[in-house]
Fold this sequence. Notes:
The complex is a heterodimer of chains A (246) and B (831). Helices cover 15% and strands 36% of the residues of chain A. Chain A contains 3 helices and 18 strands. Helices cover 42% and strands 16% of the residues of chain B.
Amino acid sequence: MIDHSITNFLKQNIAGETILFLAGKAAFWERAATLLVADLHWGKTAVFRAAGIPIPEDVLAEDLRRLGLLIRATSAQRVIVLGDLIHAQKGLTSACINMISEWRQALPVRMGVVLGNHDRGLRRIPADWSIEQLGDMACEGPFCFRHEPIPVSNHHVWAGHVHPMLKLSGGPDKLRLPCFWLRQSMTLLPSFSLFTRGANIQLSKGECALLVHDHGISAVGSNHGSNVQESLSTDNTPATLRNDEV
Amino acid sequence: MVCTSSESALVRGLILEQAHSIAAWFRKRGWETLPHQSEAWAAIASGSSGLIVLPTGMGKTYAALLGFLPELDSNIDDLQLLYVTPLKALTRDIEKSISLAMHELAPKLRLETRTGDSKSSVRQRQKKRLPHILVTTPESLALLLSYEDATSRFARLTGVIVDEWHDLLGSKRGSLLELNLAQLRSICPKLRIWGLSATLANPEQAARALCGPKTTPKIIRSSLQRHLRFQTLLPPPGTNLPWAGHLGLSLAPHLASALSPAHPTLIFTNTRSQAERWYDALSLLMPEWEGILALHHGSLAPKAREQIEAGLKNGNIRIVVCTASLDLGVDYAGIERVVQIGSPKQLARLLQRAGRAAHRPEAAGELCFVPTYALELLEALALRQALVEARIEPRLPLHQPLDVLIQFIVSRALAGGVSLAQLQDELADTESFRGISADELDWALRFVTDGAGTLSAYPQYCKVSHTDGLYRVKDRMVAIRHRQNIGTITADASLAVKLGRSRSLGTIEESFIAKLRPGETFLFGGQWLELVALRDMSAYVKLSKRKKTGTIPVWNGGSLPWSQELSASIRTVLAQFAASRTFTDCPETSVLEPILATQARLSAIPAKDELLIEYSRSRDGQHIFIYPFAGKALHEGIAAILALRLSRLHPGTYAFAANDYGCELLLGHDFPDIALAWSKLLDPEAIDDDIEEALHLGELAKRQFRSIARVAGLVLQNIPGSSKATRQLQISSGILYDVFAQFDPANKLLQQAKSEALAALMEGGKLAELCRELQARHIRVVKTQLFTPFAFPLYLERVSARVSNEDMGKRIAKMQAQWQALPNTSAASRR
């Protein structure tokens, strides 16, 4: 529901390319006009409801709304999902499939998915979703897109799967937040869905975590990019620079 | 033998006959019938229900059992008597006691046990045919009562005996058992229910909760008194106690020399990790005790525990370091001494443990208190005083826990279906739920049928269906999952600790073992183990060659706060000292006086009408220590409110810590140097709103939601079927809480979490009362250079919670700055 900050971003250079890391848990590859997201887990709430655990349907609706908003705000031409598009086949009820189809038809953007462990149960991607199946891995320019964070020689890997979270503490304060994890030759995305949990990571020397939170996005660790939070406008006027010094 | 005139000749005849055979049997074994036993037998024979309240070791089991035994009919092939005990570990001994009596008095009856550990062959057999007498736990009873044919299987039940009712009462386990007992009463209207309980402050209410609010239960007490010798282990002359800490190991050599295998002893600690440490220390100090010294706690493998229990009984094991795992039940007649390490926090708990010594009627027990730090000696004085005055805490039944109700509704729907009217009748027959509003019940029913969403929809969700006036469960998997998760005991995910290929040493919490890497060592079950690998929900270990180094697991056990009765005693003791500057006539004085003198020199000892507040600066920032001496629960509440009110004066992040003595607030370095108006900060006005706001920020409700989500069946502890399906249904209660808070804020389980957190903090509205009382005290503010003896333990308490209204980016930047200031972390960011 909090929209004002999900289009806040930090600009970073990854393998020679400009990437906008968005507080809405997506990364935008500027030159290729491509939005990267990971771990959507569509149908997860339906899996729980079918098992007798009441999880509100609005979780999926909200996830879709946020993704649509990010696509429009970045004017992305293409979306690549880094695996775990769905949670389980049995969660894809007709209501769920239809909701996604409707959402998809309103967004004239190409969409592709590299397969994650949860997607293995997916028999076929519903045709109305117009989502291209990219196999286990897709490489383009300096990048390789895949679900699990396994290095690929001569490429910078973009992966999901881990749902990274970082714990911070200092003086009286403590926090645990989802993050982008910028590693040597590899970048891990936070899990996109609101209804997922995460795993704590430990930053090694030279690594950087971009933490996403209610007020935007903040870098900790060896940040080699910008520390100045900028924001995309959500009404398609040019991106404005905000003076959110972090 | 007492008989009232209203009893029929038949009943009287029965009682006489019964009394004769029992008396003969008792004589044969060299026992004497105690007055409360014959009183109980008469009451049971006359058709009453009731509660037998006695200190431990006074023959409660037979007082209830032998009242029923002669009535049971071996020709009726149905369950006739239930014996419910809170501990699985006790079932074996109870079975033994019962079969001993049965052998003599009713040899044809069948007796069986049913717990979560029962073999599947036993479960299968019991599914077809229940024994005449069943020994079981509340959870296994709830499971049996959830089967489709529960009504017919329990139709011939004549009696239920609930052991250690004081332990169940006041918990969710107790609430669920109340509901199950109401269900049983509706199946068998003449059912007699008898509880066995240790000494309680409120036996009438406890009896009503057990027997149902519509009956007039009999309460049977004994005039026999238990004698207790209480002494404190003081450090040897010339040595001191540490100022802070919970382990108390500095006294280990001294305790070791005071113990003797000639006098069998139980050493109680408050946590499993403390038990591990003490066992390790004692076995290093006393290598000659090998084989007679043992360790016992709830995480050890059942087999290891059984061996130790057997060793205690046959006298091979003489000294056992244990936790609450040996608090209840089993008779170890040979135990002569009980040692309590650190504060027992409650008078009732101390009495319960003391009762383990000389577990025989009218024998004196010997209790030795070992302080873990100097100030704890204040507690020794307070405990002794309270023992003299025979004061004890009441145990109150819970007020309508909604999560327990939801679980019960699903179980009832499974047990052949239930109508609204039937459900209402059963709820009205419990102390916990009789006042439930139609609105609450309606919500709970909708929650299991359609999700009860007000803002959000729950398509395809249906746990319980409502057709033709009956609530039923139709989905087979929902039924299986529900039955596998029955009960209210919440445990963290734990892994089996395995030595070699198959030998299981016990279980350990995932959160602990996940921090270890293969090759690292840890102390478990009294042995130093090296982690070899983690896989398949097991931690594979080998014995470590390197001794005495490594980590001690910390199991997440709730640490109890002082009870109100204990805090009151402490305040009295402290006020005595503040008035007279000495304690007369007590051995603890020599140790306690110097530390209180130091406190007085560095700061002050608060008089009865004073509230002491200390200001102190460190590299962490400005510390404020406040000492109401009212118990940890209330101090956490006070600290949360003060943190919130300070954050209104100056935005920032405030950490706070609390212990039983007081609380600490930690303000950042940027907090302005202003005079704080304590009387205003402690204002009881608007305290309810403030505590709610502080709670919201403090995430306490979210923590409370963990057990609620588990009990209400939202988070599954046990998931049957393939591991893939298991993973797909795993979710943390924290995410559930966030999702409900965002999409369905009217969910009543969120409200329950909030009110449970409030109750834990405010102890039933006591917080406002405390604020009022503190405001009335003279506030004495002292600036100290050093942390005082009062402050030091607080400073070392883990920082437990914080309140913040700062911008998130600022908080991260602050932490980042501190983090980067530390050596061995990555270089500062390049701007």
